[in-house]
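Before the break, one more example. Copy the sequence into your notebook; we will annotate it together after we see the structure.
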Amino acid sequence: MTTATATRTPAQFARARRWKAFRQFCHDFTTYRAGMVGLIFLVVVGIIAILAPVIAPSWMLDVTKIGEPDKFAPPSAEHLFGTDNQGRELWVRMVWGAQSSLLVGLAATAMSMVIGTIVGMAAGHFTGWVGGLLMRVIDFFLVLPSLILAIVLSSVLERGTLTIIIAIGLTSWAGTARVVRAQTLTVESRDYIRRSRVLGAGHWHILTKHVLPGVLPLVLANTTLMVGSAIIAESTLAFLGLGDPLTQSWGTVLKNATDASSASNGYWWYILIPGLAILFVVLAFTLIGRAVENILNPTLRKR
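Here is what the structure looks like once it is written out:
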């Protein structure tokens, strides 16, 4: 053992071990071609969403500033993705819609994961009436249709992006909580947890120092899979008219296309392009989630 290694503190050892595990994870992830394809695609979409004000200035969405509108123009060299019912370039709406859809998907998933992780860990850690009560709450949200509850919340609260994030986040955490509870029970059955209790470790120490690191890989894998579901939920709520009509999103584009009877009138690009955008983004998150799950789950990795 070298002198530098001998003088390391336990915290430094822990950081070095985490950094080594992270580098190994990145190396393993690069071996999954499908996951890399999904990641590259999402990085491109993310860059486009971030640079939306530069790529497509907001004035291009203003009907009064685009000159003489060319309504329902099909895709061509002049109109890359065609135009909508107001003569606006569809590619401009898609660029701004990517910003809104990704924001809602990521934020709603983060809220759902935080709630599900906390409730699931608590339900698995605490015994007696506390754990039983938490399980009944989880079961209640599991049997309640999340989309119906999200529609109710979106109808009651003021319309806007924040409302959709809250509606999706508060209705989609139960599945994560159930999985985290099962993993918590598995982690707490190990010997080092029992030794910690014997040495006088409290609930907070056990949950944060031992249980959370044990369930975190499962949470991360579940998070990547949940983002796609959140984007679909956001598109569904916007399609039903529960989103902010002033905010561009792919669901809003689909709603406008339906209101204009695009399917029956032959305006195929108005429906096909936003539909494919949702499909490809959800597929990309799914590919990443499957790759992460295969890496973090020893059983799947052996297969």
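The two ends are 37 Å apart (CA to CA). The chain has a mean pLDDT of 83. Try to locate both features in your own notes.
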